[in-house]
């Protein structure tokens, strides 16, 4: 409990009056004899009223509070939280409210002043924006109740447990389910390249059309029907994709509001959505995490929720990336041939260990190495050099990029495709590469 501004103003007024009553006689000014007892009477009255008001406030029951909190929140997006106050007060009150929001979330506007009216319940809200993924708890809500005479304010902490899971920002994908996949991908900037060959999975028999090749003619069906019959093929739908995601310290670099790890996770989920819509099975494996996880590849729309629930609370660590151990663990878990997408931030010091790991993975799986490139490197490379410090920064950046490109070229020379992308462009580029391989029958 703390004094209100009104009580502090009254105390300050009495204190000022006491100074005046003490100073004027010292200056030779005669004052009426009744002023001194009047001052003491005012002081005693204020003390009595303050005591009674405090006792009254202590006995005042707390309102009942309800919180409507979304169970699932999207990383970096604003979401609404609704609070409802129920009370039985016989007069209007202005109550201060502050919800105890987890530290990893922005919020606005809090605290709030809420007017409570007799016979009514009051509903209001605020917004939260998660800055981290994970499982978060809302423990309680704080109320500032005014006393009936307005001399005191009492802080009440009401237990109001609530929890929410913060997922990667995947809302745009759910909104695309009512559209055709091709139209939606084009809106994201993903371009499907022209098909260079035929898929490997038989779809149906149909009459021969202009533009069909002789290879498509089914001669037995043609003999039976006595008219040219062609085989129609479709892209293979029984592929498996496994993401091998680096959770180590090199993925902690920050570009914009998201870290490289969050960009990589969002891009992996984006490709998972597309691949599942194409009929492929998708799984995920992590390394250099606090606790490595493995989600086996499964087909069907429900797998997307499995992936989201499996990775929503993943975060990058300070551990180094052990590519050899990651390859061994994946080979032990994934026996069937799959497209393995290794997502990391490659450095020139990765040479020996990385080549050993990709060589082992390449014997059993189709491999794509994804290397994230810091946005700041491109900015420094294109910044005009105007002084010695700028020259040092430019030369260091160019030297680092050359060493990095050399590593990528050595991987490509050994038959390992590399996708070098900035974090903000990783999702569309990854999907474009997948669709190109899918239509060329290269998976």
Description:
The protein has helices spanning 5-26, 35-59, 171-174, 181-187, 219-225, 260-277, 302-311, 323-333, 351-364, 375-381, 388-413, 426-439, and strands at residues 2-3, 64-68, 72-74, 79-86, 93-99, 105-108, 112-116, 122-130, 134-146, 152-167, 201-207, 229-234, 240-246, 254-255, 258-259, 281-287, 294-298, 339-344, 366-372, 418-421. The protein is of the alpha/beta class. Mean pLDDT is 85; it is low at 173-181 and 190-199.
Features of this protein?
single chain; 443 residues; elongated; six-stranded mixed beta sheet; alpha/beta; 28% strand; 12 helices
Residue stretches low in confidence (pLDDT < 50, at least 5 long) are 173-181, 190-199
Alpha-beta content class: alpha/beta
Could you tell me the strand content as a percent range?
Answer: 25-35%
Q: What is the molecular shape?
A: elongated
Largest sheet: 6 strands, mixed
| Rg calculated over all Cα atoms | 34 Å
Helix segment tally: 12
Name the helicity range: 25-40%
Distance between the termini: 69 Å
Mean pLDDT: 85
> How many strand segments?
20
Q: Topology of this structure?
A:
Blueprint: E1 2-3, H1 5-26, H2 35-59, E2 64-68, E3 72-74, E4 79-86, E5 93-99, E6 105-108, E7 112-116, E8 122-130, E9 134-146, E10 152-167, H3 171-174, H4 181-187, E11 201-207, H5 219-225, E12 229-234, E13 240-246, E14 254-255, E15 258-259, H6 260-277, E16 281-287, E17 294-298, H7 302-311, H8 323-333, E18 339-344, H9 351-364, E19 366-372, H10 375-381, H11 388-413, E20 418-421, H12 426-439
Parallel strand pairs: 3-10, 13-16, 13-18, 18-19, 19-20
Antiparallel strand pairs: 1-10, 2-4, 4-8, 5-7, 5-9, 6-8, 9-10, 11-12, 14-15, 16-17
